[in-house]
Amino acid sequence: MANAKLKLYYFNGRGRAEVARIILAAAGKEYEDLRFSGQEWPKYKPETPYGQVPALSVDGVVYAQSVAINAFLAREFGFHGKNNLETFKIEEIVHLWEDFSNPAIDVLFHTDDKTAKEAGIKKTKEELAPRLLKFLEGILAKNGTGYFVGNRLTLIDFIVFDALNGGTLSQFFDVSNFPLIQKNVGLVKSNQRIASYIASRKETPW
């Protein structure tokens, strides 16, 4: 699929599409980054399988679900497991991440009651995020290479990097007491293609 024509559908923000963009940047793969406003969304919604984004067109066939899109791109461009056990471990950590990120996103974007939202943000920042960071620090310590799985960049490194480097969930995390996570973020950012992408990407509200 190295020569496949790719088009990524998403709003003009980072959100759930940014990990895919980072993978594509790391791979040096050209693609159409189709961004649209909320007002423009009805124009593109019928093109998506389930009426939601992100969605990814591969040679004109459109697929959806961010976790599936990220895993597909990681496999295609060599950022997934080298064997079934590595893949198992990567997906384990991805789902650990989703257990945190899904309720965190609900608190930020789908909680209308002001009091409930403030309480949810406080709990996420003070309880849930530190708990997740302790798990991640432990995984890095056990692996011992600076990376979460194996000795190279994989999907989960990109996911954590995005969240800690200006991603939608960055506000919840304080990694000052997690040196291995800081080192891991540095390893991702030292990739020349990723560094170039980060330096040139447009500022967006989220």
Notable traits:
single chain, 206 residues, alpha+beta, 4-stranded mixed beta sheet
Topology:
Blueprint: E1 6-11, H1 18-27, E2 32-36, H2 41-44, E3 55-58, E4 61-64, H3 66-76, H4 84-109, H5 114-143, H6 155-164, H7 179-189, H8 192-200
Describe this structure in words.
The chain has 206 residues and is of the alpha+beta class. It contains eight helices and four strands; from the N terminus they run βαβαββαααααα. The chain has a four-stranded mixed sheet with strand order 2-1-3-4. A hairpin with a 2-residue loop joins strand 3 (55-58) and strand 4 (61-64). Helix 1 (18-27) runs parallel beside helix 3 (66-76), helix 1 packs across helix 8 and helix 5 (114-143) packs across helix 7 (179-189). It is globular, with a radius of gyration of 17 Å. Keywords: Eye lens protein. GO terms for molecular function: glutathione transferase activity; structural constituent of eye lens. Residues 83-206 form the GST C-terminal domain. It comes from Biomphalaria glabrata. Residues 4-81 form the GST N-terminal domain.
